[in-house]
Write a sequence for this structure.
């Protein structure tokens, strides 16, 4: 049975179960939007980007409207099903799945990590925010040492840096092992951020 979301995938040159990086695009993105990060991903890992389930202007989103609204749960369920079933369709080690989200994709990655802590081994959130709908799962010990990488631009006017600080505080309260980084940049990841992300991914998958 095929996966529930249209996606783009890069498979390593091996047939044995491999780690996987699930790249979750932001608002108005699609399955092609996250591949700028491909150069920092381990070559022995599966890299895959699902397309958000809702059409949004010239792209797609994880909710039907930018703020989320009543479609948040639908978007979260779609992402959860995609990640959970990935090892059924591709040679993926289910214990070595990492979520890598940007902007709204980071928000959904946070939400999935909190709602279903066993779905992914680690999560990287770039220029993202913690959705209000996910705060119900901020429970002490819920994430119990799970590695979380947060990267955010000090000059981000789309998602202010305060959102990254709030996410760090909440995830630390939930027990996550948070690696927090700020950069003098806007709503994107700097060259140093790319290097930091690469090092964190290598460590998280070692």
């Amino acid at each position: 049975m095929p996966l529930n979301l249209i996606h783009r995938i890069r498979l390593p040159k091996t047939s044995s179960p491999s780690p996987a990086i699930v790249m979750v695009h932001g608002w108005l993105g699609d399955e092609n939007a996250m591949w700028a990060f491909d150069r920092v991903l381990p070559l022995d890992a599966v890299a895959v980007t699902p397309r958000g389930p809702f059409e949004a202007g010239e792209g797609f989103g994880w909710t039907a409207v930018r703020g989320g609204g009543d479609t948040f749960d639908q978007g979260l369920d779609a992402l959860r099903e995609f990640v959970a079933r990935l090892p059924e369709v591709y040679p993926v080690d289910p214990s070595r799945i990492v979520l890598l989200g940007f902007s709204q994709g980071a928000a959904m990655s946070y939400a999935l990590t909190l709602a279903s802590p066993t779905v992914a081994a680690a999560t990287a959130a770039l220029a993202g925010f913690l959705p209000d709908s996910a705060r119900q799962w901020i429970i002490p010990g819920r994430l119990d040492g799970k590695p979380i990488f947060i990267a955010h631009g000090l000059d981000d006017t789309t998602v202010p840096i305060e959102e990254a600080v709030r996410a760090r505080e909440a995830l630390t309260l939930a027990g996550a092992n948070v690696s927090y980084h700020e950069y003098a940049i806007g709503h994107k990841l700097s060259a140093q951020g790319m290097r930091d992300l690469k090092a964190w991914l290598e460590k998280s998958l070692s």
